Amino acid sequence: MQAIIFTGIQASGKSSFYKEHFFKTHIRINLDMLKTRHREKLLVTACIEAKQPFVVDNTNATREIRARYIIPARQAGFEIVGYYFPSRIDDALRRNETRTGTEHIPEMGIRGTHSRLEIPTFDEGYDKLYYVRIESDGFVVEAWDFCKPNH
After folding, report:
1. CA–CA separation, 119 vs 134, rounded Å?
2. Which of 8, 71, 85, 107 lies 20 to 30 A from 116 at CA?
3. Residue 149 maps to a domain
4. Is there a domain that residue 49 lies in?
5. What's the CA gap between 79 and 71, in Å, rounded?
6. Are 69 and 3 contacting, i.e. CB atoms less than 8 angstroms apart?
7. How many CB atoms lie within 10 A of CB 105?
8. Could you tell me the pTM of the whole model?
């Protein structure tokens, strides 16, 4: 049983990473799809009660936001795994420009998330933490290293 929490600004690769690595094994919890926190909470609760692995694919910018998933999942015996997607704001804005429709985020939304982004830490309750970088040939996943944060 895994609860996976993604953290990163918009257009940092989180949803693409989910599709590539967890689509066949974990339910995707995503506020863009669910539209309300109430629906999100219902789905998280259902996953926890069913002991169904899930991924929270939102920006999860602050430790307060992440706690709403970590605490109940930890209490239910889930392994808590975090993936942090460091991204320079210029890179995210450039990737965002290729998006269309509702996937395109206003620039001030991305800048706002970036300004309040708190890098995840083990003391939040994570069992494992990873960095995910976008390279020209795909995603690179690295074990947590306290010297690397560069958002």
Report:
1. 17
2. 71
3. no
4. yes
5. 11
6. yes
7. 18
8. 0.90
Given phi > 0 = left and psi -120 to 50 = alpha, else beta, which region is 51?
left
Q: In sequence order, which ranges of the chain are alpha helices (DSSP H)?
A: 14-21, 31-34, 37-50, 63-75, 89-97, 107-116
Domain span at residue 86 reads 2-143
DSSP states of 1-31: -EEEEEE--TTSSHHHHHHHHTTTTSEEE-H
pLDDT score at 146: 54
Residue 63, C-beta contacts closer than 8 angstroms, at least 6 positions apart: 118, 120, 121, 124
| Inside any domain, residue 125 | yes
Total of domains in the chain: 1
User: In what helix (H) or strand (E) does residue 136 lie, and over which residues does it extend?
Assistant: none
In a domain, 26, yes or no: yes
The neighbour count for residue 22, using CB atoms within 10 Å, is 19
Place of tokens 């169904």: 52
Helix axes 37-50, 63-75, angle to 10 degrees: 30
